[in-house]
Design a protein that fits this description.
By secondary structure, this protein is mainly α. Helices cover 71% and strands 6% of the residues. The protein contains 19 helices and five strands. It has helices at 2-10, 12-31, 41-46, 56-63, 67-70, 79-94, 96-102, 106-141, 152-179, 184-195, 197-205, 210-231, 268-277, 279-286, 290-295, 301-322, 325-334, 346-380, 389-419, and strands at residues 234-241, 243-246, 249-252, 255-261, 337-338. The strands form two sheets. The chain has a three-stranded antiparallel β-sheet. A hairpin with a 2-residue loop joins strand 2 (243-246) and strand 3. The radius of gyration is 24 Å and the shape is globular. The relative contact order is 0.11.
């Protein structure tokens, strides 16, 4: 991996994309330190302890890279966009017009992306209002004043700044996807989580349990190795291509394989499940329904069970969206390919669907287990894991996907150089 990074820096085209991605992520991190207009920063510091625990606010603060704790212009982070994406993807299954747009290719996808942006603005606006009153409640308990001018105009300016910050974060993410390397939204979540890494190291180093302090690095290495092993695991389906006569020559033929990964959905199900499970306790905090926020606490049993179920469901859903067995079977038949022992056409599609279902089940269980394991260990022992399984899965998954894109860019450049 280090060799790939060193080689990629030497290539001008990839180096420009890397620098562009780094610049956009730097702007994103800069915005997490700029406070929203009309906010008393000293008062915000006094109530920052509410966002450092294992409750839902601490979880959302981790995903925003500490922006929520500072009430910065990027306090909402990218979560409204992720929630809007989930809603639109689910609506595509039940709304015929959206399903028709999805089948129209790139033009239809652009329309769906536009609807996602509009819904993101609406969700960000509503969430901004809730956070203003939530911070005001915390400030009331601490006898401080968060908003300097708590009038309609003052609150509207803060809400507008937070909503605009979310739109700017969404735009930066799309720019990274288009002109940089990797998925922009995933990289922003990656940057937010890794920005809290120094706090995690400090929490580990200052832990009074000597056994935990010694065993934690080895446990982390084992978990990382296991995640990488399963993420890269795949089932290779042999594919044979028949020879064809082109003019007076025999062309084609040979054998290859169709790789089916154990976890074809990547970290998207984990991100989607975490976003949805953060919704009920957030509503509980905003409406002062303490029983709801306590019941769905990130360290609670209900949260772990709910997140695990959602991860399994989203893994199947996203795998079905990204891999179509019927389309793959048609493509193989069109180009003269076939799976040995399986008839082309519908039998091939049924065979691929059966293999994919068998692979997706252990892949979904693996994602759910890794996401739930740290929470279970925290509840059963006195150990305090600063990062949960969800954060670990996202960081490792995004890093692997980004490295694959860099390798693909390098390979494509080598082919171009050879053809020239």
């Amino acid at each position: 991996m280090i060799g790939t990074l060193v080689n990629s820096v030497r290539i001008p085209e990839i180096r420009k994309k890397l620098l562009f991605t780094a610049a956009m992520l730097a702007l994103y991190r800069l915005g997490s330190y700029i406070p929203a207009p009309g906010i008393n920063t000293n008062a915000v510091k006094q109530i920052s302890d509410n966002f450092g625990g294992s409750n839902v606010l601490g979880f959302l603060n981790l995903f925003s890279g500490g922006s929520l704790q500072r009430f910065a212009i990027f306090a909402l982070g990218i979560m409204p966009y992720i929630t809007a994406s989930i809603i639109l993807q689910l609506l595509q299954v039940v709304v015929p017009s959206l399903e028709k747009l999805r089948k129209e290719g790139e033009v239809g996808q652009q329309k769906i992306t536009q609807y996602t942006r509009y819904l993101t603005v609406g969700l960000a606006f509503a969430q901004s209002i809730g956070y203003v009153f939530l911070f005001r409640q915390f400030a009331g308990n601490a006898n401080t004043s968060i908003v300097k001018n708590f009038t309609f105009g003052g609150v509207f300016v803060i809400v507008l700044a937070l909503t605009t910050g979310t739109v700017l974060v969404m735009w930066l993410g799309e720019l990274i996807t288009q002109r940089g390397l990797g998925n922009g939204i995933s990289l922003m979540i990656f940057a937010s989580i890794t920005a809290r890494l120094p706090h995690g190291i400090q929490a580990w180093w200052t832990n009074p349990d000597a056994i935990f302090k010694v065993m934690m690095p080895f446990l982390a290495l084992v978990v990382i190795a296991a995640i990488v092993f399963i993420q890269e695991g795949q089932r290779r389906i042999p594919v044979q291509y028949a020879k064809r006569v082109v003019g007076r020559k025999m062309a084609g033929g040979g054998s290859t394989y169709l790789p089916l990964r154990v976890n074809m959905a990547g970290v998207i199900p984990v991100i989607f499940a975490a976003s949805l499970m953060a919704f009920p306790p957030t509503i509980g905090e905003l409406t002062h329904a303490r029983s709801l926020s306590t019941f769905f606490s990130p360290n609670g049993t209900a949260y772990v069970i709910g997140e695990s179920i959602l991860i399994v469901l989203f893994t199947y859903f996203y795998t079905a969206v990204t891999f179509n067995p019927v389309e793959q079977a048609d493509n193989l038949k069109k180009y003269g390919g076939f799976i040995p022992g399986v008839r082309p056409g519908r039998p091939t599609a049924e065979y691929l669907d059966r293999i994919l279902a068998r692979l997706t089940f252990p892949g979904a269980l693996y994602l759910a287990a890794v996401a739930a394991l740290p929470t279970i260990l925290i509840n059963q022992t006195s150990a305090n894991f600063f990062f949960g399984g969800t954060s670990i899965l996202i960081v490792i998954g995004v890093a692997l996907d980004t490295m694959k894109q860099i390798e693909a860019q390098m390979m494509m450049r080598n082919y171009e150089g050879f053809l020239k």
